[in-house]
Amino acid sequence: NTIFDANITDLNATTLVHTWSREFSRHRVMTVTTTFSDLTSEYNDYWKNITRPLFVVLLDTEKTMGEFAETTKSVKPISFPIWLVMFLQRPGNSLEERCRHPIDNVFNVDFRTQMLVLCYARPILVEWYAIRDNRTRTFDLALWSPDRGLLLKTQKSLYARRSNMFGDVVRVASVIVSFSLFLELRCNGTVGGFFGLLLIELSKVMNFTVEILDPVEEFGSWSKEKMVWTGAIGQLVTNEADIGISAFSMTTGRQNVIDYTIPLIRSRYRLYFKRPNTVLVEWSLYLRAFSSGTWIALLMIIITASILLTIIKTKGYF
């Protein structure tokens, strides 16, 4: 689905919307024209019923930009659709500076948001996203050419393009039972151990600093009494930590609330039990699988079935 903003009443913009709708229809893409208010009220329906729509937003004035900014505050999650935001040409292009050099997180994007912005006549599609510092980060993704179409300026994946954390602090949660095995906090403030060395390498490549939180006692589970996640998983869910380092097992419940990395260490679990003493085994135990009444019923069924089959065969019914 492609959703256009219909708050713009200018004839040229309206013609543009209908032209695009017709072109999308020719390519068998269903389109819907809506307003910011309708988008806010129907966003949850799109989230539940559509795999991943493309939202095309047309902005021409400070008013429409403000309305879209308010809309992005109320729709959650903002990273669900793919956004294409287009700033339309107007006398003076009053929004050009904010379009080319966003100074804050005006559209409330996050790290996972896929928002492409086309700023007036500039033929470059720019990605807008944010980390945690309420600042919009930009990345020149593609060049639009009328003759050659869309030309990508990089072949990197989404997260490879956003690997620079700009010196942000990454808070690390851990569990006491695994702390000394995988993560070591040295006296001079540095970290060691397998995961500690891995964090150091990641911090160099991704440009972030590490903050080790106090280890907790539990890995984390869902508390039905308190209706919250406990332990290190709880720290991740409540945004007290950014990454958890311990020997976490993958469960369905945890996968619904956090993301796992690819397995870094594979371990095997074995279950041991004492071999039973055959001398103490009672042969009558095999008969205790069913009650005496059940055994009698089974015996009667077997005898009755045998008699009936014999009579049927003797009478020549087969």
From TrEMBL:
GO CC aspect terms: plasma membrane
Short name of any one Pfam family annotated for the protein: Lig_chan-Glu_bd
Principal location: membrane
Subcellular locations according to the entry: Cell membrane
The keyword Transmembrane belongs to this UniProt entry's keyword annotation: yes
Residues of the signal peptide: none
A single MF term (Gene Ontology): ligand-gated monoatomic ion channel activity
Methyltransferase as UniProt keyword: no
SUPFAM superfamilies per the UniProt record, alphabetical: Periplasmic binding protein-like II
Membrane topology: Multi-pass membrane protein
Membrane spanning residue stretches: 294-312
Keywords tagged on the record: Cell membrane, Glycoprotein, Ion channel, Ion transport, Ligand-gated ion channel, Membrane, Receptor, Transmembrane, Transmembrane helix, Transport
Residue ranges constituting the Ionotropic glutamate receptor L-glutamate and glycine-binding domain according to the UniProt record: 188-274
InterPro entries found in the cross-reference section: Glu/Gly-bd, Insect_Ionotropic_Sensory_Rcpt
Protein name: Glutamate receptor ionotropic, delta-2-like
Lineage: Eukaryota, Metazoa, Ecdysozoa, Arthropoda, Hexapoda
Gene (UniProt): LOC112461724
